[in-house]
Design a protein that fits this description.
Blueprint lengths: L1 H24 L6 H9 L13 H10 L11 H12 L17 E5 L9 H5 L5 E2 L7 E2 L19 E5 L18
Antiparallel strand pairs: 1-4, 2-3
C-alpha cells in the first residue's frame, strides 16, 4: 500500500514539473487577437487614428477603447476586415480621422533640400537617409506614405508620388509596396 502511494506521489510530482515547464516554455506572449488586428492594419504608423501607431491602435481596438473605423489609410476595406475578424457589424470609415488616399510614397527634391533633418525626425519608420546640412533621400521601400514629413519641411522639397499597384508589387494587407 505504501509503495503504491509513493509511486503515485512521484508520478504526480513528475507530471506537475513537466506541466509547469511546458507552461513556461510555451506560454503565449501577448494577446494573439492584437497580433491579428495589427496584421490587418496598413502599418503606415501615421497617427491619424489618434494613436501613436498601428500596434497601439490594435491594442485599443482589442480592449474596446477604440472603434474599428478610425484608420483612413486602411480604408473601408480595412474596416470591413476588422469587423469580420472581430465578429461585429461593420461601420463606415470615420471621416473625422481623415480621408483614404491612394497608395503613395514621398520623394525629396534634391535641388531644394537644405538638409535640415526635420523629415528624418518626423518619420515613424526611418525611411529617410541624410545628415545635417546634407541632402536627404527617401528609402522608397521603407516609406509608408504617412505624410508626417511633409508639414515639417521648411522648404517644401518633399513631394508625393502615387504608387500604382501592379501584379508584381501588389500585396494585400501590407502597406509596403515597391515603387512602381
Amino acid at each position: 500500500m505504501f509503495d503504491s502511494v509513493l509511486v503515485f506521489s512521484v508520478l504526480t510530482l513528475t507530471l506537475g514539473l513537466v506541466l509547469g515547464y511546458a507552461g513556461v516554455k510555451f506560454k503565449l506572449k501577448g494577446n494573439p487577437l492584437i497580433d491579428q488586428i495589427d496584421a490587418i492594419l496598413p502599418q503606415t504608423q501615421c497617427g491619424q487614428c489618434d494613436y501613436l501607431g498601428c500596434r497601439p491602435y490594435a491594442q485599443a481596438i482589442a480592449s474596446g477603447e477604440a472603434q474599428i473605423n478610425q484608420c483612413p489609410p486602411g480604408g473601408q476595406e480595412g474596416v470591413d476586415a476588422l469587423a469580420e475578424l472581430l465578429g461585429v457589424e461593420t461601420l463606415e470609415l470615420n471621416a473625422e480621422h481623415g480621408e483614404t488616399k491612394p497608395s503613395h510614397v514621398v520623394f525629396v527634391d534634391e535641388q531644394v533640400c537644405i538638409g535640415c533633418t526635420l523629415c528624418i525626425q518626423a518619420c515613424p519608420v526611418d525611411a529617410f537617409v541624410g545628415a545635417s546640412k546634407v541632402m536627404t533621400q527617401v528609402i522608397i521601400d521603407e516609406c509608408t506614405g504617412c505624410d508626417l514629413c511633409i508639414p515639417v519641411c521648411p522648404v517644401d522639397c518633399i513631394h508625393v508620388q502615387e504608387v500604382k499597384p501592379t501584379l508584381t508589387t501588389f500585396v494585400p494587407n501590407i502597406a509596403k509596396v515597391k515603387y512602381g
